Amino acid sequence: MIKAVIFDFDGLIVDTESVWYEAYKEVLNRYKVELTLQKFSEVVGTSDEILFEYINSNLKEPIEKEIIEQMAKELVDEKLLEPVLRESVEDYLISAKNAGLQIALASSSSREWVQSFLEKLNIYEYFSVIKTKEDVAKVKPDPELYLKAIEEIGVDVTEAIAFEDSLNGLIAATKAGLQCVIVPNSVTSHLAFENHSLRISSMAEKSLEDVIEQLSKN
Questions:
Q1: What share of the chain is helix, strand, coil (3-state, %, to 5)?
Q2: What is the reported pTM?
Q3: Of 25, 14, 28, 214, whose CA–CA distance to 114 is shortest?
Q4: Is residue 156 annotated as a catalytic residue, yes or no?
């Protein structure tokens, strides 16, 4: 019996990933470095170490990571002044609350980043547990974020479903022993997801009730 749902944040609740991709692409174009969607998708859901290794290997002259990060963040902040939820996200939160399910969030991003959006979008109160990079030694694809969330919720891994948009998130969820539903965005839809429990194009495709019913038959 499903007692809890655990959501990723970036790319799943708000499509911040597409915005970050466009921002980094724009900044790197100034330095004659091409950032492909394929390369960027490798860092979705985890830390940005791989991204900066790629950037450094392609720059003609070394530039401090903080400078590129700051320029990209300024563009992102402009583009996300008025963030919007991905389709039917709030419907899922309402359905989960009405069904008496515990609702958690597990994100490789910072607490400050995640919480600011949840509050701005008036959905912060739905989450009884929030785990971010400050809570763990390793972010996704390591399962620690999910294991910490499960531990605090107090349910068995078989009683919870994870919702993810990235390969790193899927790996983390499945390593933790969770069923994982993939809801890709425009940055991750080309990826070859494997070993997931279900894939839907958006939360508008199936209601939470239908997802839970389908997974209970697996």
A1: 45, 10, 40
A2: 0.92
A3: 14
A4: no
Token pair belonging to 195: 């070993």
Q: What are phi and psi of 204, to 5 degrees?
A: -80, -20
User: Do residues 156 and 174 touch, judged by C-beta distance below 8 A?
Assistant: no
In DSSP terms, 163 is beta-bridged to 7, 181
Superfamily of domain 4-14+83-216: HAD superfamily/HAD-like (3.40.50.1000)
Parts of the chain belonging to CATH 1.10.150? 16-79
Token code pair at residue 79: 């583009």
pLDDT in tens, 160-192: 999 999 999 999 999 999 999 999 999 999 888
Question: What tokens appear for 91 in the block?
Answer: 């419907």
Strand ranges inside 152-212, DSSP E: 160-164, 179-182, 198-199
Measured in whole angstroms, the distance separating CA 186 from the mean position of its chain's CA atoms is 13
141: nearest Cα among 23, 52, 50: 50
Helix (H) or strand (E) holding 215: helix 208-216
Rg (CA), the chain: 17
- pLDDT tens, residue by residue, 91-124: 999 999 999 999 999 999 999 999 999 999 999 9
**Is 1.10.150 the CATH classification of the domain at 16-79?**
yes
Handedness of CA 201, 207, 211, 217 (dihedral sign): negative
Q: Is 8 a catalytic residue?
A: yes
